Amino acid sequence: MEHSILIHKPEDHVGVAVRDIDSGETVVGLITENNDLYEVKVIHKIPLGHKVALKSVSDGEPILIYGSNCGLALDAISKGEHVHVHNMVSARWK
Amino acid sequence: MRPITFNGFRRTNGAVGIRNHVAIIPVDGLANLAAKHVAHIAHGSEAFVHPFGELQFGLDLELTFKTVIGIGSNPNVAAAVVIGQEPEWTKIVAQGIAETGKPVAYFTIERYGDLATIEKATRKAIEFVQYSSELQREEIPISELVISIKCSESDPTSGHGSNPILGKTVEMLLDMGTTIIFGETTELTGAEHTIASRFKNQIEQEKFWQVYNEYIGFLKSQHAHLLGSQPTQGNIRGGLTTIEEKAWGNIQKIGQAMIEGVLHTADSPPGKGLWFMNTSASAVEVATVFAAAGATLQIITTGQGNIVGNPVTPVIKMSANPLTVSTMSEHIDLDVKETLYRTKTFEQCKEMLMDLLIRTVNGRLTKSEVLGHRDFLPPKLYRNP
């Protein structure tokens, strides 16, 4: 199946849109480390290159990308949400 | 079997260039006008104008000298004309370049004025252009290439596409015995421990921590919020959210390679292999100091489409962002968007990059060269007295 999202590692909380995705679309994510597929219903518009949450994250929890802590959730984030500067912040430069 | 040689210019000191420039180098900002006139009259010569070189002192002055001398010494330069206001600093720059054994002449403006200086310098530039036009390319092993790598205006397509492709290419180029430089100290934040773990020896690893902590300490001392600067507004527009995410994408471009050591800004690598240079992440400044360190080719990955070029070294730019490669095609030398859809593998894209690299070092012009992107900016450490 053709993927619309790329995900680095199975444990990552977010994936990256490889095309513009509309709100309400159910799309497939490809985990590049093991070629597994992951389905997610997207609840916001996600522009090409932007991130979508693959699982729920609680307020203040670390967000994993590349299997590594790449910042903290600024709010509770639900699966399918757009993840960007409005709901994610650097843990290093606050 | 991939060719393991290319055709380049062997300079007097043994260093190998892939271009054959005659450089007109101003020592200070006030010599820019004369340098531009000389380059305008003597076709085939090029002026490397910059705003610095007055009243500087200490480490800041040393860095300007090192950068300007390094540019003139770059193996892509066949000969250099140096122009400054007064003889003392002008002579330092000219003598620094002359250590390479290439033809160098210097001229000063005070007590002559622009017109007489332009005439004398132009006569010398004409001679140098004719000299350089007779130099021939010869067969050179690929191991003698010095390449610098950087990512610019990155976005998440960089971390998923162009950077891992470059990483695989870097691993192969290192196996072939080349020298590779990367930098961008602050942009390692979040992945700095991974980079530290890649140093081959502890002394260089400690040196890395020293320069990294010093740079971050300086940023913190300014009490500025860095969102919008690192990541840049362009990075954010492209989808990058934090410096940590940017850093993890960034370090993909060295693959699994191990690092020989740390270079101070604009210092030449003392040996082969992969070197980390302490630099800012600003594209024009980094391309300038990499050229000053002796890089003869630069490879830049970009997400949102950084358009940088360099007057001394060709810059190959590659992107995996489908929007960028279609809207900014005049800037992007290599389109690797298919890697996002897995219609091309990283290996196939690596082969495409290697093919373009070989053609470029043999003389094929990059898009930034054809467009005339001769962006040039020496770094500056502190304000003048």
Biggest pleated-sheet summary of chain B:
7 strands, parallel
Specify the structural class of chain B.
Answer: alpha/beta
Helix-strand pattern of chain A: EEEEEEEEE
**What count of structural domains of chain B?**
2
Give the N-to-C terminal Cα separation of chain B.
Answer: 58 Å
Measured distance between first and last alpha carbons of chain A? 40 Å
Q: What string, H for helix and E for strand, traces the elements of chain B in order? A: EEEHEHEHEHEEHEHHHHEEHEEHEHHH
Q: How many whole angstroms does the radius of gyration of chain B measure?
A: 20 Å
Features:
heterodimer, A: 94 residues, mainly beta, Archaeosine Trna-guanine Transglycosylase, Chain: A, domain 4, 3-stranded antiparallel beta sheet, 9 strands, globular, B: 385 residues, alpha/beta, Rossmann fold, 7-stranded parallel beta sheet, 4-stranded parallel beta sheet, 41% helix, GD_AH_C (chain B), lyase (chain B), GD_AH_second (chain B), UxaA_altronate/galactarate_dh (chain B), Galactarate dehydratase (chain B)
Describe the protein in words.
Chain B: Residues 142-382 form the D-galactarate/Altronate dehydratase C-terminal domain. The complex is a heterodimer of chains A (94) and B (385). Helices cover 0% and strands 37% of the residues of chain A. Chain A has strands at residues 5-7, 14-17, 26-31, 37-41, 51-53, 62-65, 68-73, 82-83, 88-89. In chain A, the strands form two sheets. Chain A has a six-stranded mixed β-sheet, with no helix packed on it. A three-stranded antiparallel β-sheet of chain A has the order 6-7-9, with no helix packed on it. The model of chain A has no long low-confidence stretch (mean pLDDT 96). In chain B, the strands form three sheets. Chain B has a seven-stranded parallel β-sheet with strand order 10-11-9-8-12-13-14, sandwiched between helices. The N and C termini of chain B lie far apart (58 Å). Chain B has two domains: 21-133, 3-Layer(aba) Sandwich (Rossmann fold), CATH 3.40.50.261; 142-371. Chain B has helices at 32-41, 58-73, 87-98, 113-133, 156-175, 192-196, 202-221, 233-238, 243-250, 283-292, 322-327, 338-341, 346-361, 367-371, and strands at residues 5-10, 16-17, 21-26, 45-47, 77-84, 104-108, 138-141, 146-152, 179-182, 261-263, 273-277, 297-302, 315-319, 334-335. Chain B is globular and about 60 Å long. Classes of the chains: A mainly beta (94), B alpha/beta (385). The interface between A and B is medium-sized, with 30 and 29 residues.
